[in-house]
Automatic annotation (TrEMBL):
<feature type="domain" description="Exocyst complex component Sec8 middle helical bundle">
    <location>
        <begin position="274"/>
        <end position="464"/>
    </location>
</feature>
<dbReference type="InterPro" id="IPR007191">
    <property type="entry name" value="Sec8_exocyst_N"/>
</dbReference>
<feature type="compositionally biased region" description="Polar residues">
    <location>
        <begin position="9"/>
        <end position="21"/>
    </location>
</feature>
<dbReference type="GO" id="GO:0006612">
    <property type="term" value="P:protein targeting to membrane"/>
</dbReference>
<dbReference type="GO" id="GO:0090522">
    <property type="term" value="P:vesicle tethering involved in exocytosis"/>
</dbReference>
<dbReference type="InterPro" id="IPR039682">
    <property type="entry name" value="Sec8/EXOC4"/>
</dbReference>
<dbReference type="GO" id="GO:0000145">
    <property type="term" value="C:exocyst"/>
</dbReference>
<protein>
    <recommendedName>
        <fullName>Exocyst complex component Sec8</fullName>
    </recommendedName>
</protein>
<keyword id="KW-0813">Transport</keyword>
<dbReference type="GO" id="GO:0006904">
    <property type="term" value="P:vesicle docking involved in exocytosis"/>
</dbReference>
<dbReference type="GO" id="GO:0007268">
    <property type="term" value="P:chemical synaptic transmission"/>
</dbReference>
<keyword id="KW-0268">Exocytosis</keyword>
<comment type="function">
    <text>Component of the exocyst complex involved in the docking of exocytic vesicles with fusion sites on the plasma membrane.</text>
</comment>
<dbReference type="Pfam" id="PF20652">
    <property type="entry name" value="Sec8_C"/>
</dbReference>
<dbReference type="Pfam" id="PF04048">
    <property type="entry name" value="Sec8_N"/>
</dbReference>
<dbReference type="GO" id="GO:0045202">
    <property type="term" value="C:synapse"/>
</dbReference>
<feature type="region of interest" description="Disordered">
    <location>
        <begin position="1"/>
        <end position="21"/>
    </location>
</feature>
Amino acid sequence: MSSSEKSKTPSQNQLYGQSGKDSSSAYLMSIVQTLSSSADFEQREKEKTRIEKAYRESDKRLGELVANNYQDVTQILKAFNGMTKSINESRDKIRKIKEDLNSCKTLLHFKRDELRKLWKDGVEHKAVLSMLEQVEQIKEVQDKMNTYIANKHYLHATDMIVQAVAMLEGPLYGVDALRELKSDLINIKERMHETLIEELSKQIYERSLPSFSLQRGSQMRLSRKDASVWGWSDGLDSPRRAPKLEGSEMSSSKISYYEVKENLNSNPQDNLENFIAILTESLFALHKLPDGVERLKLSMKGSLNKLINTATQQIAESSGQQLDSMVNHVQPKYLNELLKLIFEQARYVAKTHQIFLNNVFRLTTSVSADHESSGMPLLSHVLYDIKDVWSEIQARLQILLSQYLDVRNTMSSRQQAPSGFDEPSMDISQYFSKKRPAKPKKVSLFRFDASQHAISVSSARQQIQQFEHDALGLSDNWHIVKVCKPDAFNITAIYKPLRSFIVEVEEIMETSALQEFITDFVQNAFLGQVHAKVSENIEAATRVEEEEDGHKCFDALRNIIDEKTRRELGVPRPLLQSTVTVDSSIQELQDLMHDLPNYADQFLNMICNVLRDYKDKCNSAYRDIVQHGSDEKRIISSMWAKDDDISRFLRSLPSWRSLQPRQGKELDHTICSEEEMRALNSKEAIILISNLSTDESLIPQQEIITDVTQMRTVANVHESLEWFANRLDLFADSLTPQSSLAPLQEELPTELPPISDKTLQSLKQLVQEFKDLAEICLLLLHLEVRVHCFYYLLPVAKQSNYAGPIDDLDPDSNVLKLNKDLSGMEEMMTQSLQPKKFKYIFESLGYLVASILINSVQFLNKINENGIKKMCRNILAIQQNLTNITLTRESDLDRARHFYELLYMNPDEVLNAVAEKGPQFTLGEYQELIKLYHRSFAGNPVQVQDARMQRLHSVMEKGQNETLA
C-alpha cells in the first residue's frame, strides 16, 4: 500500500462522518506519524497541501450537510443544551447530598449508643406482642375444638390440638401462666385418639344398622366455634396429604397422593370413604394409628357380638313379640330374617374395614418427608387384614348357629346316618323291628364323688373344659338371646341364604371355616337325626304286633285315615294311615332336598331306603293275607294274580285297560264291541272253569279269603299304594339325572341339582314295584270274587239233590251264602274302592255265574221238574242280588235259566228247536243237557242217546255251514 493511499484513509474516515474522541485522536496520531516519518521538507509540504485540500473539501461538505439538515441540527443543539444543563444541576445536587450525608454520619457517630438501645427495645416489644397474640389464640383452642368435634370435623380438631401442643412445648414453653392450659390441652390430645377410635368403631359396626337408632358412645361433646387458628386455613378446608392407592395392593413405588379434605359446611358422614380417611389421617397425625389398629383388632369380637345382639333385638321388635318368649316357639322364619340382616351388616362391616385398611396401608407405606418422622411402626401381631375380619365374622356366626342348631345336644344324642344309602343290600329293617327289652341298670352300692381324689380329678376336668371353651371363642361372656327355639331342623330354613353367603366368603378367602362347620353338622349330626326321626315315624306307622294265635300281622294295614284327613288330601277313598305317614315322611325328605340341595343325593338315597323297607313290609303283609299255614300254600286268587299268563290275559282285557289313565283321561269303553266283549268274557270264564271245575273235588275253604276285613285291607292297600306310587312317579319325573346333562352344561333351571343315575333308577324301580303290588291287589280282588262264586256254586251241583220232593223248591243254601258273601263284599268295596274299580271287579260276574251253572250240569246226577224249578230259583236269586250290586240287569243269567228250562222238553224237541231257530248254546252244553236228561229219565236205551248225539252234531254242523254261507 503506497503512502498516498495511506494518506487517504483519515480524510475518507472524516468524509464518512467518523467522529468522536477516539477517531479524532487516531486521525491526529496518523498525521503526526506521517509528518515525522517524512525525510525532507518537500514531502512534508505535499502532505500539508493534501491535508489542507482535504480539509477544505470536508468543510465544504459539512457546510452542505448543515445547509441541508439545518432544522435537525438546530433541534439537536437545543436538546444537547438541555441535557447539559440537567447534568450540571444533578451534579450540584449530588454534591450537596454527599455533603449532607457526611454531616449525618458525623452526627450519628456521636448518638450511636442511644440508637442501639432504642433498637433493642423495639425488638423486645415486637416479640412480646407476638407472644400475646399466640396466647390469645391458644386460649380459643378448646372452644374451637369443641365445635369441630361436635360437628365431627376431626381433621381440623386434630391439626389444631397438635399444633397447639407443639406451640406450648416450643415457643410458649416458659410461660407459667399457660401451665394449666397446657396440661388441659395435652390431656385432650392424649384422649383424642380414643374419640377417633370410638368413632371408627361406630362407623364400622353401628352404621350397619341404618334403620335402627343407636346411642352414641362416650366422647367429648364440645361447642361450635370458628374454623382457623394462626392462619392454618381459611375456615373451609384443612388439606392433608395422603397416598392414593390404585388397587387393593400396591408397592410404595406406585403410590400417588391426593388431598384429604374436610369441608366444614357439610356433614362429614355423608361420604363414608372420605370420613374413614379423615379418621385414619387424624390418628396418623396423633401418632396413634398403631393403637387404633390394635384396638379395632381386639374389639372385633365384642363389637360383632354387640352387632348380632342388636340385630336380634331389631328382629324381635319388627315381629311384635317379646324377645324372652320367642325362644320357646318353633319359628325358624325369624332366624332366617335375622341371618339375612346379619349377612348384610357383615358385608358392610367388611367393606368398612377394607376402607380403613386401605388408608392404613397408604399412610404406613408413604416415604414422603412429611411422614418419615411419624414414629409409628405397625408390628405384625397388631396389623390385620380383611381375611382376619371375615374369619372373625365366621367365628361369631359359627357360635350363633351352634346355639340355634342346638349342636351340643344334637351331637351328644345324634343318630348315626347310614354310610351308604345307595347300597341295595343295606338292611334298615332294624329300625322297624322290635326292640329288645332294656336290661335293668345296676344300682351302685357306694360312690367316691366326695373323695379328695375325685375332687381333684373334677377340678382338672373343669380346667380342661374351660380351656376348650376358650379355644372355641366362647369365653367372652356372650349372652345370646334367641328369636326361635333351638333345633337342628332350623338348618332347613337358613341353608340357602347361608350357602350364598359362604360362596361370597369363599371368593375372598378361598376356604371357609363356616362351610366346614355346616358340612360337619349336616353330615355328622343332621342327616343321622333326620334318619332317626323318619325311622321312628315309620316304625310307629308300620309296627308289627302279635295276634292271639301267634300269627304276625301288619297292624298298620288295618288303620285308615279319618274323614278330615281324607278331605285334606283330596282322595276319593280312605287310605292306609301307614301309607300316609310314609308319604308324609317322604314329603319331608323331599322338602329337605329342596332346602338343602347340596345333599339331595343323600336324602334321595334315604328316600329309597325308606321305600324299600316299606315295600318289604307291604309285601310281607300281603303274604300274610294270601298265605295260609306254614307250608307256603297260598290262596287261589293270589296264585293266579302272580301267574304270568293269567295276569297278562287279565291285563289285556278292555275292562282293565279302561282303568289305566292316559294323559289324564280314561280310555273309552267303546274300544270293544258287545260281541267282542262277550267273547273275551267267555274266554275268561273258560280259563277259570278249566282250572276250577275239572274234577269232583271242591275248593277248600283255606284257599279263599273268608274274612271280609282282609279283603277290605287288600282294597285299602291297592288304593293307598296306587295313590302313593302316582305321587312318587311325579316326584321321580321332576328329578334330573346327571347323564342328561350336556358336556358343557353346568346349570339347569331346576331347583334341585342333577341326581346320580343309579339312585334315580333305584327310585323308579321302587315306584314300579309299588305299582305292581297295587295292581296285584286289584287283580286279587277281581279273581277272589270269582273264586268265591266257584266256591259256593260248585257244591250246588255236586252236593245238592235236584230230584227231590215237590216241597223242596227254595234256593239252595250255598246260593244264599253266595248272595250274602257278595253283598258283604259289595258293601266293603263300595267304601274302599273307587266306582270304576268296583265296576271292574263285579263287571261280567253274571256271565261267569251263568257259565258256572251251565257247566255244572255235568255234575248233576238226576233232575226232575221240581229240581228244574229249584235251579231256576237259584239263578233268579243270584240275578236279583247281582242286579242290586251292579245296578244293571244281568241278562247273562237269563241265558242260564233258559238253558235249564230246556229240560222241560225232551231232547227231540230241543233238537228240533235248534234246527229251526239255530243253536243258542255250544255243542258241549247241548251234549251235557242230553246226558242229564237220559240220566234223569230211565227207560231210554243207549242207542237212542247216541242217535240224538249224532243228530245234534249234524244239526250244529249244518247251522255252522249256514252261518258261514
